[in-house]
Amino acid sequence: MNRRAAIVAMSVLLAGCTPRGPAGPEVTPPPNAAGLVPLPCHATHLKPASPVYCLLRRNYVTPQARDVIVKAADAMAMRFPRLAVVYMDASGPDGHRPFKPHLSHGDGREIDLALFYDDRGGRVLARPPTLSGYGAYEPLTSGESRACIGQKGPSEPDAPANRSWRLDEARTKTLVSIITADPRVRRVFLEPHLKQRFGLATNEKIHFQGCWAGRHDDHLHVDVR
Q1: Are 5 and 155 in contact (CB under 8 A)?
Q2: Between the CA atoms of 210, 216, 217 and 218, what dihedral angle is there, to the nearest 10 degrees?
Q3: What burial class does residue 167 get, using C-beta atoms within 10 Å of its C-beta: 0-12 exposed, 13-18 middle, 19+ buried?
Q4: In the 3-class helix/strand/coil scheme, how is 164-207 assigned residue by residue?
Q5: How many CB atoms lie within 10 A of CB 57?
Q6: For the segment 57-89, what is each residue's pLDDT rounded down to a tens digit?
Q7: 24: alpha, beta or left? (left if phi > 0; alpha if psi -120 to 50)
Q8: Distance in angstroms (rounded) separating the CA atoms of residues 58 and 47
Q9: Is the pTM of this model over 0.90?
Q10: What is the pLDDT of residue 142?
């Protein structure tokens, strides 16, 4: 079972029995012994894809990383009212790296953010179309190619052509641009075909994660200094 399938399985088991908290601002606790703080679990503009990420304490980051993501979410909400930035895995509270099943994460500097999607009628979806937030892999369009031959495989197939959602390219590009404009952000992992599609070929902070790692056309991997 790959890492995203494992997260989906956890979500199916736990999401339905996890209570929801009230919406609104959350007070940031002081850093723990590892120097980490949790991302908000019930904020208006920044939410986990599933309650599992908070329940299993997979939402820990450095104070600087938290500020980067919170401010990016607020900036997105200014442009697109009522829109929430959705996060998935960050790190555990102990700060150990790597944070399984990832090849990295763990030190609080790295956070996975969901892309934005619309339904077939063009209406913005409030959250990713998959339960975990991972796995809505974006198919190639005309003229695009994959960076790695054989990267697409049985464990990470493209989303089907008859899917009920479509990638919201404009809002996703805006989020990428906001994140990478922050000088505290070191890099963002995104598949080359989406970097090209978004017209961000000259953005030096957007990197390809390499052929040995999972696909990044279903989420952004944000690395904060």
Answers
A1: yes
A2: 160
A3: buried
A4: CEEECHHHHHHHHHHHHHCCCEEEEECCHHHHHHCCCCCCCCEE
A5: 14
A6: 999 999 999 999 999 999 999 999 989 999 999
A7: left
A8: 13
A9: no
A10: 83
Task: Provide the percentage of residues in the chain whose pLDDT is more than 70.
Answer: 84
Question: Residue 211: what residue type?
Answer: C
pLDDT band with cut points at 50, 70 and 90 for residue 101: confident
Interstrand relation of 206-207 and 185-189 (parallel, antiparallel or unpaired): parallel
Q: How far apart are CA 117 and CA 106, in angstroms?
A: 28
- State the average pLDDT over residues 84-109: 94
Report the interhelical angle of 63-79 vs 169-181 (nearest 10°).
Answer: 140
Instruction: Return the ∠ at Cα 88 (arms to 23 and 122), rounded to 5°.
Output: 75
Look at phi and psi of residue 64 and say left if phi exceeds 0, alpha if psi is from -120 to 50, else beta: alpha
Q: Read off the amino acid at residue 75.
A: A
DSSP string spanning 66-104?
HHHHHHHHHHHHHHSTT--EEE---B-TT--SS-TTSSS
* pLDDT for residue 151: 52
Q: Is the pLDDT of residue 212 over 90?
A: no
* Residue 114 bridge partners (DSSP): 219
Question: Domain spans of the chain?
Answer: 32-137+154-224
Show the tokens assigned to 133.
């937030």
Indicate the class that CATH gives domain 32-137+154-224.
alpha beta
